[in-house]
Design a protein that fits this description.
Layout (H helix, E strand, L loop, with lengths): L9 H48 L2 E2 L5 E5 L5 E8 L13 E10 L5 E11 L4
Parallel strand pairs: 1-5
Antiparallel strand pairs: 2-3, 3-4, 4-5
């Protein structure tokens, strides 16, 4: 009679290596997804900061309204649109004294993403 040898059989080793391979694949996929999410979040942050900057640049606008657009070197497209506030305004305010402003920043080729900021600003004739 032969004594049983200590150690793992070939089948046990193959099962262990297969489990390890699936575990590593799942880990790599999770890390790749996290990296993609960080890149997307970075672009959303940049777009939001650009939109805030454009909104601050247009704190006072022409009462006739504006419609400007452009593109940054990083392929972010932006648009600023204003229009007179509809509805009753206090009689002390001139027509067009309050302007709705919509700032849109978009990016992406295959899947477009965008950030929109909406506010009300002062409308004044340029000096």
């Amino acid at each position: 009679m032969r004594p049983h040898s200590q150690g793992f059989s070939l089948i046990e080793m193959l099962v262990a290596i297969t489990i390890l391979a699936f575990s590593l694949a799942a880990l790599y996929q999770a890390a790749g997804g996290a990296t993609r999410n960080v890149r997307v979040d970075e672009k959303y942050s940049f777009a939001y900061l650009l939109a805030e900057s454009l909104l601050a640049d247009h704190a006072i606008v022409d009462p006739q309204g504006i419609n400007k657009h452009g593109e940054t070197s990083g392929k972010f497209r932006w648009q600023v649109k204003t229009s007179a506030v509809e509805g009753e305004q206090p009689s002390a305010l001139a027509e067009g004294a309050l302007q709705n402003i919509l700032v849109t920043v978009s990016w992406g080729e295959e899947r477009e993403r965008k950030v929109e900021l909406y506010s009300v600003v002062a409308g004044r004739e340029p000096k």
